[in-house]
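Anyone opening a protein record will find just a pair of labelled lines. With that in mind, the following record should read easily:
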Amino acid sequence: MITTYLIGIIISFGIISTLCSKFNYRSELSSQADYMYKTAMSIASEYGNAYSGGDVDDAPSLPFLKAVSRYTGCNIMLLATDGTVLMDTSDSGLDSVKGFDPAKYKKSNYIVNDFFGIYDSNYLTVYYPITYLYNTRGYVIFSKSVKDVRSDADNSFNFNYITLVICFITSGLIFVLFYKYITRPLNKITKIVSKYAKGDFSEKINIKHNDEIGRLSDSLDYMAAEINSLNEYQKKFIANISHDFRSPLTSIKGYLEAMLDGTIPAEMQEKYLGIVISETERLTKLTNNLLTINNVTDEGMILDISDFDIIATIKKTIETFQGTCEKKKIKFKLIFPDKELMVSADMSKIQQVLYNLIDNAIKFSNSDSSIIISVTEKGDKALISVKDFGIGIPRESISKIWERFYKTDVSRGKDKTGTGLGLSIVKEIITSHNEYIDVVSTEGVGTEFTFALPKAKGHAPSVWG
């Protein structure tokens, strides 16, 4: 495309240059002819006044004509009416102009030819009659080689030509720069954005310009990456949800069909009905988690803030795990202040956080171990910690545990029923409270989660307890 434009510019330049050269030559020819004609008219007028009759005498006027000839660059002749040469500034020795007939050139004030054969090439020639008392006494002839006229035209054209060249080069450079920095990037953006519109985000625009187009490119690349990431997340989300719903539903259906067709005898049905109830609870938990995620807006979760005792809430949550802990011989070690500690938060959401963290600690703890839950104060914050001595989290997975549906390889063997949503929900809840949650873990040693909550107003700040 740019090559076509450049070829067009070069051809246009050549055509314009040729036309300008011809126009300039014709303009110069006409201009010099007009000047020569006026000068000849002035000289003819002076000679007409100087003579009272008869043919003009050449001797007294020759030095004057030669001076004018040098000044104008023209050859000047004085001819009698019959063509006899009375004066000739070129000293050619010409006696007469044979066949001289001014009537042949009355249609123009100048002629371009060999002037009745006296020149061996084309000359620009003008003439003006010398008259006295309405009688023509002779003619003043001005002649100049067409080569000299063209040379003068070329000299005057050179400046314009150079200016024209500079203009074309400048316009060419401007076009190339415009194409490079504006047209081509915009074409690329248009092409790739069309792919984005069709759902293809595989190609980046990647225009590295430090200008508005560069910033537009970066913004579109960022947008494409975010949309692509969202699309991938949606696919993964649907796949995970489908899997997490399918597994318990398959189990429930299988056990119920086995009971109906007698595969499971009546005396064993109570055991398998317990499994069905467990799977139903798993579905209920998954549904509740999805509803919790659905309540997350751009500003965070919708919270019902109230003041409550975090220590009492922790103790109440621990009670729900009593049976599970007895089976695994896991003991809780509680480190609390001697008095109640009031915090300002959404109690039901914080109960969900505690439930998820304690549930994970139990799942990934070894049998006959302990879980430490501590509450401390720092300034206007309450810090809650849940620490286990279980399998730990691999270092490369720590930054990913907050992602929805993420499970570490080591956790998959321990947690067959988990959805991978628990820690994601924990993070969303704490973030919605404008607080933080940290994790410290060593694989094979254990994991500690610590999160902060604001103390209720009126509860005196303190240092670490």
